[in-house]
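Why run this: before we spend reagent on co-expression, it is cheaper to look at a predicted model of the complex and decide which construct boundaries make sense. The entries below are exactly what would go into the expression plan.
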Amino acid sequence: MGRDSPDRCLIMVPGPTNVPSRVLRAMMKPMISHRGPEFRTLYRGILENLRYLFQTEGEVFVLTASGTGGVECAVSNLVNPGDKVLIPVFGLFSERMREKIARRGGVPVEVKLDYGEAPTADQIERMLELEKDVKVIAIVYNETSTGVTVRDLPEIGRIAKERGILLLVDAVSILGGDKLPVDEWNVDVCVAGSQKCLACPPGLSLISVSERAWRRIERTERPFYYDLVAMKSFRERWETPFTPAIPLFYALDEALKIIREEGLEKRFERHRVCSEAFYRAVEALGLEVFPRRGVRSNTVIAFKKPAGVDGAEVRRLMRERYKVVIAGGAGKVRDLIFRIGCMGAVSSPDVIRTVSALENALADVGYPVEAGAGVEAAKSVLF
Amino acid sequence: MGRDSPDRCLIMVPGPTNVPSRVLRAMMKPMISHRGPEFRTLYRGILENLRYLFQTEGEVFVLTASGTGGVECAVSNLVNPGDKVLIPVFGLFSERMREKIARRGGVPVEVKLDYGEAPTADQIERMLELEKDVKVIAIVYNETSTGVTVRDLPEIGRIAKERGILLLVDAVSILGGDKLPVDEWNVDVCVAGSQKCLACPPGLSLISVSERAWRRIERTERPFYYDLVAMKSFRERWETPFTPAIPLFYALDEALKIIREEGLEKRFERHRVCSEAFYRAVEALGLEVFPRRGVRSNTVIAFKKPAGVDGAEVRRLMRERYKVVIAGGAGKVRDLIFRIGCMGAVSSPDVIRTVSALENALADVGYPVEAGAGVEAAKSVLF
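The model came back. Tokens follow.
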């Protein structure tokens, strides 16, 4: 059932991603009590490696919930009803974050951008001049729906810190795949998912919390399951307040060990090179990358579906005939783009296999591609 | 790493429980996209078997969160700020439910009982005479902290239905181990956990929703991750709104197949017989069962720690010397009782091994036990 069996599809969607056998096998360890010594040793090791991953001296936690639950947890802990939260909206996941803020009773102050764009530090600063009493800036660092990364995040962190505003970052689809030193960049609460750049199965959220953030969190009315103060108090004895998803904790432990073995810098570089190969290949096939240069993500590759091509059919052929699964669009650009996850365990062979499947499927539907042009372009970056 | 390896502890806490190898192995299946055909087939099969488990024609859902998250989800969907919720409080988990209601802004109307007691239909009815405008009755069907089951639940369901009040049931530690036909008993929203009587790993909540409940749910302000209306709309195409914990879905699928193969009636009877064996054994050892007769649980066995015995030491000896893990108390009775999980895959050999370990550990700390008395008493029930 491993990655190499003949009928096995390569999963190149922007999460969940392919999980190495080492990580899958870790889930077979026997069940343990979450109030016993084995679990405490496990959780302690996970948190130590999470601090490395987040590059933080602050507190880190694992929540049994998918990324959306983790982001809602962060919002619920930082935002009280009536609080103004500045939020750039430039894709489906920033729309969702705005919705979570609104449902929490917060007042979203929007910086509205086109899909494919990223907010800049200047835009944030101008909005802060107009709107007083902003309590939190909430940023989706990597918009999974459009393949855009907010490259100004370090500068936005400086602005937030200078003004005494907390910075909440949704890094679900980027942590572990691109630079994000949360302490250095003044990120107060950062949320990631297990199933993206960590090459771990879905079901866990990872959350970092700065010292500065606690003073606010202690004064918010927190929902029960998301209560970070309770998580902190249980963390002191290396436990979680509620029963954790033990097999996923085993998997995360193994995935984090793999990350430490590789090292963050090498891992980021691998993602960068693979993404560059994807972008070159897409362009060599005459397709248009969706985001403008300068904000393109190293973890999610978004490009336009050529006019007249049936995108669903291309993806069906890729899946059924060539055994590679990529994603269509999401939100407003659902039918306009394709998206490839360039995450986690992504490697040169994965890139070549995916580009080759894309070339073939496009040819199958009658779209004119120069045979091998995409693969050659990818190779020129990879080798 | 299976259940039979020599150093392997038997996990007899009230969740997580021992997971059969078939279920563990299911988690090794390859990662899939949660927006693809494989996932839809998987989820559809799970939901069909969940309807069998809940004995309902209503909607059922799987939420990636532990039981506490599932119960909070139910509360958030049924209770608006200001709503009165009648809640009997008779242990840690009913205290937690009360706390969730309060944090949601609801007004908990308490029926306070001693630990070890269970609310009766009469008590509920009397409280409803005193308190007008109760919108929801919230019941913990099986108090995991005290080993108590609310045997009047069917009658409470009739009362709720007659008065047009919704009935929310926390069945986290009992569904699959004892009778709970949610349609027949007029349970409007029922929540269970994957890691208890289903013999599946922790990390998923299972939720059933009656037709009647939808009319209320549609009018509440629901948090994003817990939104049952969104879950229903995605369910129509056999998807979840957010990335599900795929390996745990594989495990749940397998665990539910095992349940159908055994059949609910046989499964309930197995739990009943094993629990009866535990109760007889405990009494044969001269120990006192914690709850009174008539409300004792078939899934959680709670009994008093004998005076003068160091409970932590008994449990340490059981774990380290005899390889059986049981739990101490929780909440107010933390240091006063022991608890044994009699759940999921529990079998005669598990009962014998656990009782034998308990006997031996008690003897080791100098508590006078008649050697073999517990095991003999258990055997007389089991064989």
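The radius of gyration of chain B is 21 Å. The first helix of chain B runs from residue 21 to 26. Bring this page to Monday's planning discussion.
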